[in-house]
Amino acid sequence: MGVKIDDKKLPHLRYTGDIVLITPNLSEAERMLAELGKAYGKIGFRRNLTNTMFMRNGLVSYAQYTLNGTNISDCSSQLYLGREISMMNDLAP
């Protein structure tokens, strides 16, 4: 059991500080973020909205995104678990 990343098997990711949600549309992202916020609250965690990033794919026009009154920064690429994810649907090593 575990997750294989760059030919290394990690037994679990429970200590990761970053979470990536991939959704087909903004309303689904909002629903998933609300569920995540509830789950965090149950165990005493809080989301750091100042470190939260919003990435859209290259087919979607720019739109400002706000969560709980906080503007969420838009980014075109993000490093996640050692891999760069970009808005053009690329997954770089």
Describe the structure.
It is a single chain. With 93 residues, the chain is of the alpha+beta class. The protein has one domain (3-92). It is 18% helix and 28% strand. It is built from 1 helix and 8 strands, in the order E-E-H-E-E-E-E-E-E. It has one helix at residues 26-42, and strands spanning 3-5, 8-10, 53-54, 65-67, 70-74, 77-80, 83-86, 91-92. It has a 3-stranded mixed sheet with strand order 3-5-4, with no helix packed on it. Strands 6-7-8 form a 3-stranded antiparallel sheet, with no helix packed on it. A hairpin with a 2-residue loop joins strand 1 (3-5) and strand 2. The chain is globular. The two termini are 23 Å apart. The model has no long low-confidence stretch (mean pLDDT 78).
Mind telling me the C-alpha Rg? 15 Å
Spatial order of the strands forming the largest sheet: 3-5-4
Span between termini:
23 Å
**Which spans of ≥5 residues are poorly predicted at pLDDT below 50?**
none
Largest sheet: 3 strands, mixed
Mean pLDDT across the residues is 78
Total count of domains: 1
Task: Note the overall shape.
Answer: globular
Q: Assign a percent range to the helix content.
A: 10-25%
Order of helices and strands: EEHEEEEEE
Would you tell me the structural class of the helices and strands? alpha+beta
**Annotation, overall tally of beta strands:** 8
Which labels suit this protein?
single chain; 93 residues; alpha+beta; three-stranded mixed beta sheet; three-stranded antiparallel beta sheet; 1 helix; 18% helix
